[in-house]
Amino acid sequence: MSAVLVSGLRKNFGATRALDGLDLRVETGEVHGFLGPNGAGKTTTIRILLGLQRADGGTATLLGGDPWRNAVDLHRRIAYVPGDVNLWPNLTGGEAIDLLGRLRGGLNSERRAELIERFDLDPRKKGRAYSKGNRQKVALIAALASDVELLILDEPTSGLDPLMEVVFQDYIRQAKEAGKTVLLSSHILAQVEKLCDRISIIRLGKVVQSGTLAEMRHLTRTTIEADTATPVTGLADLPGVHHVEATDQRIRFAVDGAHLDEAIKALSRFGIRSLTSQPPTLEELMLRHYGDELRANGVDEQVSA
Amino acid sequence: MSTTTATRPAATRVSGRTRPLAGTGTLLRFNLRQDRIRLPLWIGGIALVQISGPSSYEGIYPGAAERQEQATVVGDNPAMKALTGPGHGLDDYTYGAMMTNEYLGFMVIAVALMSVFMVVRHTRTEEETGRAELVRAGVVGRYAQLTAAVLAAALANLVLGLLIAAGMAGQGIESIDWTGSLLFGAAYAAVGLFFAGVAAVTAQITEHARAASGMAGALIGVAYAIRAAGDMADSGLSWLSPIGWAQATAAYVDDNWWPLGLAAMVTAALVATAFALSDRRDIGAGLRDGRGGAATATPFLGTPAGFAWRLHRASVVWWGIAVFAFGFMYGSVIQVIEDYADNDVVQQMIEQIGGASITESWLSMIISILAIVCTIFAVIAALRPRREETSGRAEPVLATALSRTRWVATHLGIALGGGAVVLLLSGLGLGLGAVAATGDAGYLGQVVGATLGYAPALWLTTALAVAVFGLVPRAAGLSWALLVYAMLIVYLGGLLDLPGWMFNLSPYTHIPAMPADSFTALPLVILTAIAAALIAIGLAGFRRRDLEAT
Fold first, then answer.
1. Which residues from A are below 8 Å from B307, CB to CB?
2. What distance in Å separates the CA atoms of residue A144 and residue B342, rounded to the nearest whole number?
3. How many inter-chain contacts (A to B, CB under 8 Å) are there?
4. Measured between alpha carbons, how far is B547 from B404 in angstroms, rounded to an integer?
5. What is the pLDDT of residues B399-409, one digit of tens each?
6. Which of A202, B352, B392, B439 could be bridged to A86 by S-S, CB 3.0 to 4.6 A?
7. Min CA distance, B542 vs chain A (Å)?
8. Which chain A residue is nearest to residue B548, measuring alpha carbons?
9. In the CATH scheme, what is the homologous superfamily, with its name and number, of domain A221-279?
10. How many whole angstroms separate alpha carbon A87 and alpha carbon A104?
11. What are the residue ranges spanned by the domains of chain A?
């Protein structure tokens, strides 16, 4: 059963079209990456899933319920971390954690203590004294200390330092092991690559691609760098080979997954001394979807890809 | 990290001099540049209103006879004294005396506000936004920012004072000479400087610019209230107020410079205090809230009602104290009103009003004003959900198992219930003040009952705010319009001879003006029913609409 099932979701803000027929499916027990640039519609989708905003069209089902009509009951089973956490200036971080946890229906105090220690948060400070990262920790701790089925995290670590990012990833893996479902919106690609079983890429209010990372990589290019005994010639004429940069005995190029075999065979005739291959990164996956946007802004794909 | 400033290792001193004022000149120019549009508007606006005063009075009171008539109006009536001044030069009520007595006490509030906003803007606002840190990292001494802010305010007040002096004297109106005008302008500047000093201190105490301006602003109110009470009862209390000092110069009448010396000394002490306090704190920190708070929430805080109470608690307490004091102050001068009522002319006036004694009429008016003031608290509380929404704090809360209706209801409960409590406290203050002044215990029940009678009007105004919040959240600020309108009706309604429907638009008009009028229940029931309907509409609207994104 799907934890989140969205189809044809539409939402307009005045003349601006925020969601334009968005489809999204998050299976129970998976960590699902929700990727896209600012303004693509990630946060709007999440707000609709939380019943904070109402869709203009399409359907959304969350844990088997209607996110708008069954909001309060569903919220007992969901924990949410907003992208921009704003705390009450006169409440301490510890108070805010307890407050959010209890309003949701209670939190695990042992787990709360452990999380506070692992995330290195001073819970005695007033909300106004926290930095952006610390405010996010407060919301994260409140979410992770709750026993819920679904975690909805909207760019939850944009203010955290790399050490805390590692702690965060630990807890997301734990949540997955415990059978929880996670919807993680992000534009930190490395994070999504490490954590997510499946990803959906959203652009201009639509999901343009959805699947496992392996499925998506199949669709894209591997980057090859090699040192050869003799200078490589003629490689650029092969089908599926792009962006060839050659200097004497060193060559770098990108090749489509379907043509990898031919390209390596051709390369091997020049005497390979060293070879590194990089699987396509999410950056490249993303660039495929935003390439036309970049071109529209006068950036040549050859340069940026 | 509030404990690191106590010792400063010698090794960090490169030149051997700490140069605490380094960069002050640059910062001063920067501050003035930042204010290059705002400040001329403030100064120009205040000066214009003041300078146009004498010529407009020439039109209203063309001769000595008319002026002398006005002197009896402002001189004999305690309520007028509370509004204007102690009554210098009433024997020979020249245009100059009129300016000192009727303009100065009120106009200096604007100068005080200008100074407070200016100092806070260049000190605490800069720190709160983190910009001060960037500046302080440059070649800038520890005291430079505070010094530059105070100097900028001093300069603004000096310019304003000179402008007023020149503008007043330059008109060549009889009795408005250069000596008096210079003193008159200096009195303006003295009050402005005093409150610049106050703001310099409050900006050290709290971490937040709004709280710093709020505290200083409250002190302006206190200064005005003290002089109003002092002038009304002619009790010397006015000497505790800087506005009282400005009026004590009696410019154009006696031309006393020495009260301004007093003002200068206290101002210097305030500024020195601000500098001393600034040494005791870190940049960005306040003197308060340095300690850590609770690491866990109390069980009560975890409930929706406890949560709402926590957000409103301080506001309820401070409003309660403030309106009690405000009421007490008005109640304690009731004796003066009674004495005034012995006057024959006044007795005739009372007969015209119809039955009620002047004390009762006066109490009724004060009670309606107190009710409107208490409603400010209730509307602020009712609009708190809107502030939570726009600041993004509502989002994580409404993503929990707390329903929208319950969430708004908890805040509304405090607005309506807390509003009634604040109203009760204002009535208690007024009643107890009257009892203390007259020894007549009968006032207490009478006044408290009359004050509580206004609860339905308070509820209706609050309910309107909820309806606007639910239906057209972006227009939530419009909720204030009704309150402002009601205030105008109370203050100006009688003077302007407005048509009846304009009176009827204000819910406060429909409350029986006890103790002058007798009690009738029907209007209270109707107002409460309208309030309930508006609340239902507001809640239904909020359940149906999108939570607005930040």
1. 99, 103
2. 74
3. 113
4. 10
5. 999 999 999 99
6. B392
7. 11
8. A53
9. ACT domain (3.30.70.260)
10. 17
11. 2-210, 221-279
